[in-house]
What we know:
29% of the residues lie in helices and 20% in strands. By secondary structure, it is α+β, with helices and mostly antiparallel strands. The chain has 3 domains: 1-55 and 129-167, no CATH class; 69-119, no CATH class; 180-270, no CATH class. Bound molecules: zinc ion.
Amino acid sequence: MRCIFCKAESSASRSIEHILPESIGNSKLLLPKGVVCDKCNNYFAKAVEKPFLEAEAVRQMRFHEGLPSKKGRVPSIVGLLDPDVPVRLFRDAKDRALSAAVPTEHFGRLAERPEGRLLMPMGGAPPSGTVLSRFFAKVATESMAARLTYDPRLLEQFIDDPQLDPLRNHARRGQPLDWSVHVRRIYPANARTLGPDGSWGQVMHESDFLVTPRQEIYFAQAIFGIEYTINIGGPDVDGYLEWLDANNQASPLYAPKNLELYEMPAPRPG
Ligand SMILES: [Zn+2]
């Protein structure tokens, strides 16, 4: 067995790779041992996933959704006690209860007021640049591999396919340097859908591939309502923008793809 990133022998590797980090609520999207070797698994955790998880907007999302890290802690964020007292906000990982730490120099002011409004920030800086693109280059590469793990021969072909090397290298080394990711919100973070068992559940993550009429392959991943789309074959998203324009800005996650895309328009009567 070989690693899908460094292509080295990986049969002895013990790591079970999480396609999306556990810290954003993923316990289901996993790759079997050895698909990603221990060395790459450790490297990605430190160099690619950690910077993404530490981006202020991702910390805020994890705080609001109550998503604990592997160590069981929900990240704290800085809020304001109306009008201008900065407080650090904590959320309990188990019962989601909120608490606030008030700096001692503001105790006096708080004591004077019987009640106050707590302002919770939402608009922190989102991940950008290579923090964003390397993260999704990794997720896209692993999501493709996840569809092939049932057949070792297909996985071998995938590892040896030179067309996938640029995306792989971007995830591994940030080379080439610029790789676009198209980002937009497609539904609210707390959107709920009716599951097959008849119960309502929050949509945390979903992903799919899109093949455009130009035969480019895009990977779209939604995380709490934000859709991130990356081109598998090259660093630009021009073909995706074109596809969006031709499809009324639909999301490939919700558009009936391929079938309708390639359908020729019916000849007009008369
Ligand atoms: Zn490796």
